Amino acid sequence: MRGILPAGLVLAPLLALAACSTPEQMTRAGLESAGIPKPMAGCMAHRMVDRLSLLQLRRLAGLGKAGESKSVDQFLYRVRSLNDSKIVGVTTSSAALCALGVG
């Protein structure tokens, strides 16, 4: 007869994997959950991790928890609500350069 595994044995590997996420992976995932298409999210995250602090990246990733944007413009509008000029500048320039294919 098989017993049920303790929750710790099931959750421990998942927590270990989550701890291995890099800031770029977390930023990319946050951008994707906020509605940014995968290729653009990857391009933007790659640029943004070198230009923003971890705290700023976490604030930005938190926008994805609020729901999906319908467009990049709508996402940038939501970014402005963070009231952080550096986040706005880096996100806007990253979105523009990545959209043009030069990011």
TrEMBL record:
Keyword Signal listed: yes
The alphabetical list of record keywords is: Signal
Signal peptide residues on this chain, from the entry's feature table: 1-18
This protein is called Lipoprotein
Native source organism of the sequence: Sphingomonas oligophenolica
Q: According to the entry, what is the taxonomic lineage of the organism?
A: Bacteria, Pseudomonadati, Pseudomonadota, Alphaproteobacteria, Sphingomonadales
